[in-house]
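I am still learning, so would you mind making up any protein sequence you like and the tokens describing how it folds?
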Amino acid sequence: MWIAISALNLALAVMLGAFGAHGLKSRATELQLAWWQTATDYFFYHALGLLLLAILVRVIPALPIKASFILIQLGILFFCGSLYLMAFGLPRILGAITPIGGALMIAGWLILTWNALKYAR
């Protein structure tokens, strides 16, 4: 299940990246394109991270990844989603959601760090 969710994230990141490069380029401002690019970059990084988590749990089944996976996935939705929506011209107030997504991603990685340290003992 984790690998399937990761693969879906990666497919969506490719589709959204392509849309930004081809479909949005002629209609968006430089700022909107920058938001789109940032969202796509972070989407890719964290989707790859989710895939690594999905593989890691197969290699080390005792390592808990569920909380990290969920927090990172929610972070992707909030962080990238708010930037994508702003790039479409929706209100910039959505930018207030972006740091929440970033905090969720950070929390996911920190929980993984904590669990990895506990597992290593």
Notes: The chain has one domain: 2-120. The chain is about 80% helix and 0% strand. Residues 2-120 form one domain.
